[in-house]
Amino acid sequence: MPPQKAADFTAEELAGAQLVRARLGNDLLPELFDTDFYLARWWRSYNGDLAKIEKCLREYLTIRTLLAYDVDDMHHALTTRPMTSKVLRYFAASRLNEPVRSGDTCMFVQRMKGVDLKQLLRVVPVSHILSTYYGLQEFFSRVMLDAEKETGRPACVTLILDLEGVILSDFINPLGACTKFAKLCAKIWQEYFSENVVKMYIVNPPGILSLMWKVAKCIMDQKSQSRIEFLFKPEDLLLHLDAHAVPAAFGGTWTDTSGWAEEPEYCCNSAKTIVSIDYPKPHQVWFDNGFKCAPPMIHGTIKSKQTFVVSRTVTKPGTRLVWEFDVNGDVDFDIIRTECAGSAQQGKEEPVWPRLTLNSLKMNEQGHLVCKEPGEYRLRFTNSNSTWFVVKLEYAVGLID
């Protein structure tokens, strides 16, 4: 195979990168991302719509900061932090810290064998998995930037996704938990990282081609669908990629003998099996944060395009804000802090918890925040659905010193 190239940027896209840079200003854009290729990817993602680019890039940078992904070593952050390391152990993937390249594309492999997604959604809150997914995409951005700095050419990421072991019926129902979860992941990819993973080769698909495309159309938009290629013969990867970038199990020469991979020819670790001790106790978040009992859940409803707000006033730095909620539909959840009445900066809003689109699916969403400053903390639940659908909400929010 000839070396694989990422799609070259047009003169218009590179000129667009300059417009994005001028629009954002030096005070917002991290030095790491201040490259023509990085900004041209945003220009390409939103077809040169500067207003959308600014809105989404600002959103992403805010989420990135609140998740503390604005660090030098993303691999260390992902693999050592309690939340992300816990999530990652339930998945099987190739090593992140030593990506293989096929030309200018950075290769990663993910296997679904041994991954019980239905049960995982009963073990880990959706927000934890989505936050980890953000971290993976952030890591992919870093890998691409490193490659571009080295070669002076545009880079991209290609993912080999092995669906061996996947139960297709889990994804056939558009209202099923697995399908809804996959759509939440796809939403992140589509809104903030659509020019990162530009090709996904799916091997060992568990159904006929027409059925696989039916599932794909239910989960992702048309642009993302165009990035997918189903390969019923894994060795067909060699028609697209260099042999050293294809796992030996699929006909290539890539093996991982470092001890990371359970089966070196697949280059992936083994996913942790979910056992009884992994399932959290009901309302565990309250006891973990020092409450003697869980407060009662309160009922609410959120109409289309409306925001439901729960406020708590914090008077002492170090107070813990704890929450738990259950919803029967997608909501955009975030937390902001405002200055209390009488303050010179009364009404000024500061985001303190990242805005994520969530659905509690198989277990309640839950979390806590150590409040660094006094103020009014507002938990916001937004129903961004454009149809008549009314989201039912059950929630509890508490403070503890």
UniProtKB/TrEMBL annotation:
Q: Where is the CRAL-TRIO domain?
A: 107-258
User: Origin organism of this chain?
Assistant: Plectus sambesii
Q: Mind naming one GO cellular-component term on file for this protein?
A: cytoplasm
- Which InterPro entries is this protein grouped with? CRAL-TRIO_dom (IPR001251), CRAL-TRIO_dom_sf (IPR036865), GOLD_dom_sf (IPR036598), SEC14/CRAL-TRIO_domain (IPR051064)
Q: Which domain of life is it from?
A: Eukaryota
This protein's name: CRAL-TRIO domain-containing protein
PANTHER family recorded: CRAL-TRIO DOMAIN-CONTAINING PROTEIN, SEC14 RELATED PROTEIN
SMART domains on file = SEC14
